[in-house]
Structure formats: structure tokens, C-alpha cells
Amino acid sequence: MELRNGSSDNGFVILGLSDDPHLQTILFVLFLVLYILTLIGNMTLITVSVCEPRLHTPMYFFLGNLSTLDICFSSVIVPYMLAQLLARRTISFIGCAAQMYTSLLLGSTECVLLAVMAYDRYVAIVFPLRYTVIMNMSVCITLVSCCLLSGSVMAFLDTFFTLRLPVCGQKIINHFVCEVPVFLKMSCVDTFVTEMVIFSAGIFALLLPSLFTAISYICIISTIVRIHSTEARLKAFSTCASHLIVVIIFYSTAISMYMKPGSKTFENRDKFISVFYTVTPPLLNPIIYSLRNKDVKMALQKYFFQKIFITHVTCSANFRK
Hints:
Order of helices and strands: EHHEHHHEHHHHH
Structural class: mainly alpha
Strand content: under 5%
């Protein structure tokens, strides 16, 4: 990828979230705590999904992949954000390109994966007797592979067409991450073609998955309301509510950032939106799924009880010795 005009080997200066030293300290502590909680929550969910035989189902297979994406997505963005809060930092062109591509890859893959998870819930509720046949492990692996492939293609297109734009004047990124909308604002040439490419990629990575998810839930809800048993109806709603909450949070923030008309203003608003969809979904996903899911709560209680019991027995044995 060619370096043009303003983008040289010296890289870019990233301003970060704030210039106030006191606010930087507060934000550093806040985001560090949130990042640690994100890692703990998602790793716990992955561990429980792998270790508990009752959770070896397509739903938890997709959930484990979602948690893996969340860990990787947070680790691409948050550690560098924390470094910026300690000191004013620069980033090389190659580093910026790598960060942009990786974050787009993980974000686009998650968008499509959420749609696949909606399809999984659709099959489970509309065709419960054929669920295990339709959603066998081979199909699940193929769907996740397709999510990753589509995400990599969309990320490459967005990154390539964005970073080939010439950046004029000072190479200062008024943001905390190398993100596509920021570079569109920094460019001193007409960005219409690039915006159209990004918008087209957004249709496939954001709008189509969100439309597919909406259609899936319309079918799911129409099936649930025809269930005669109130208990069965509530159980069906419960299995879908967690995923629906995650979908609304992720799609709404991502669409507001990548599917809006080009603008040279509202940098602070864009920063806030970016923080929200960078930090919030990976943090909330394991909390939402564990608090609203009886199987996950039972598995967590089982493993925490076993851990405490084994520790107590070991300590008692050591004390007697």
C-alpha cells in the first residue's frame, strides 16, 4: 500500500480522548478496570462453554466464538488507548493500517456472526425437532468460517481504499484509534469513491446482517405467540432476549458510525460513539448471556462450588498434616 503525501514513515500523532492530566488518570483507571472485566467475563464464558457437556450445543459454540471475537477486538483497541492516556503517542503508518484492518476484520465478522446466531435461534424455535440435524457441527463450523471470510474481505476493502487517500497538512488523528471516518475527514481530496466503497461494504457487513436478523426475529416472534403454553412461551422469549439485546447495542452504534453521510465535524461525538461500541459490547455480552441464561448460571455455580470445595478440602488436608 503506497504512502501518499501526508502519510509518511514518521506515522501519525494520535490525540487520544483527553488532554487533561487528571481526566486522563481517571479514564486510564476506568478503562483498565473495564478491560480486565471484559477479559475475565469472556474467558469465563468460553471456559464454561468448553468444560460443561450440557453446553456443547450450536448456540454455545457460536457464543464461544463471539466471546473470542470480543476478547480480540478489545485487545486490539483498549491497550493502545490506555497507552495514549499515559503519554502523547505516535503510531506508524504500518501500525495504523494493521490496527484499522484488524479492528474492521473482527467487527465485520461479529456483525455477520450475530446474524448467524439469529438464524440459529430461528431454527431452534421454528424447527425444534429438526434443530440438531440442521445445525450440526459441520454446518456450524462452515457458518463461522464464512463469517470470518466475509469479515476479512470487507476489512481489506475498507482499509485499502481509506489508507490510499492522501493526508494533507499535519498528520494528527483527533481520535484514540485509526478508524475509517477519521481518515476521511483528514483527507484533502474528494473522498466520494472511497465513501461509496465503504458504504457498499457496510451494506454487506452491517445492513444485510441486521435486516436478516430482523426478519429472523419476526419469524421467531410470530412462532412464539402461537405457542399455547405460557411457560413454554416465556422460555422461548428468554432464550432470544439476550441475543436481541446484544444485537441492538452492537448494530445501532456501528451503523451510526459507518453508515452516516460524510462529515467534517462532530469529532467528540464520534469519539464517544467509538468508545461505546469498542468497550461496551465486549463487556456486556458475557454479563447479558450469563445473567439471563439458566444453563450458564448453573454451570458457573457448579464450577465455582467445585473450586471452593476442592480448595477447602486441600487446605484442610494440609492443615492436618
